[in-house]
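General statements about sequence and structure are easier to judge against a single worked case. In the encoding step, the backbone of a single protein was reduced to a row of integers, each denoting a local shape. The record that follows shows the chain in one-letter code together with its fold in token form.
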Amino acid sequence: MDLSTLANLINAIAVTAGVIFAAIQIRQYRHSRQRDSMAALVRSFQTPSFAHALRRVSSLPDKVARKEIPQLLGADGEDHVYSLLTSWEALAILLYHKEVTLDLVDDFFSGPIIVTWQKLSRYIEETRAEANRETYFEWVQWLAERMLERESKTPAVPVAHCTQELETSCEGGSRLEKRFVGVTQLAVYDSSR
């Protein structure tokens, strides 16, 4: 092998290594960006006002009428309802545009989303009719339907039934992802101290 051929071979290897390295770096950057955006999303829902609105809506009877909200939740009750619904709307739009994953939404919010829909589906229908606008809270409905669809295929299982670390599924078919099983086990462990 002459010197020119050897130099071309070394050059080809160096370029290939550079391309592989760049691809790995891009993949790691995307993963880091996704993880950071998911963490930011979860933090954004961990506010006292969101928790208060969710708790108040959860206390309502199923399929509550719009006119019943003030008597059940007080004068500012509809503000809490609207705040919660617009939060779910935003989350649904992020999911639709693939800014967050369905698994993440399912792991963190499926229960509250389904309960919200059970409580407020009539309220939403009445709001749409009153405004003559079928698109009012359409994303909330879309999101609730996705969560209900997933639960019909794989019922939700309490984290207490998830005993094996870093498995993709737990006893009974829970939909927890690998990266969250360890975190939830740690939380369960810490709470028993």
Notes: The two ends are 69 Å apart (CA to CA).
